[in-house]
Amino acid sequence: MLGISVLVLTISIGLYTGVGGRFDLHRNSSSISDVERNLEATRHEAKQEVRNQLQTRPLPTNFGVYAVSDGQLNSLQPLRVKVPDQRVLIGPMITAPSQITLKDGNVSFIVYRRDLMFGVPDKVSVRVLARVAHSMTFNGGKPVTNNVENAWVVRAKSYELSVSPIEQSQEMVAVRPESAGFVLPAGRYAIVFKGLAYDFSIGGEITEPAQCIERVEAANGIVYSECRNH
User: Fold this and answer.
1) Confidence tier at 4 by pLDDT (50, 70, 90)
2) Is 112's pLDDT higher than 80?
């Protein structure tokens, strides 16, 4: 009888352990499934947020070049001067102020043109339009410095932007900085697209040395240099 009781007890313990083991395995599997479901839900929410951002991005209805700032489209006007090759350090002078001033340098661009269906550039440059602050002339061999109003020159200095397609239209491309988080310093610029330059300014205190130029009218020609103090 004692042997039979021990055998029954051993079988009972084995059954209990086996059932318990299955219960633990079931609970662990449930926990893993919950984690996977949570991760999948998080991924879905992230994808949906990206879709929402793309859907809410403003898109132009008329052909042109637009600066996108603070969620708004700003139509840019072409400059009336020809922007030279970047091998030319100082280009022609501009006397008309910028028509568009954006509140900060967190900006991207949308270009809407028919010819984009047949090819787009890989890169686009934003050229610096430096303000001419002072002009020095010589009177009887003595230098005379005068302040200059409403004068800017196209500089060779530029920022390179990347170009990417926009799904909604083959005639549109997005142009944005190559580095995430890049912000244009305060000052005046022109985005150059297929040989045409479109003018805009970034508001705020100008601290970038490239944005200020001094002109010296010497006997052998005009010489430009960055402002010592601006």
Assistant:
1) very low
2) yes
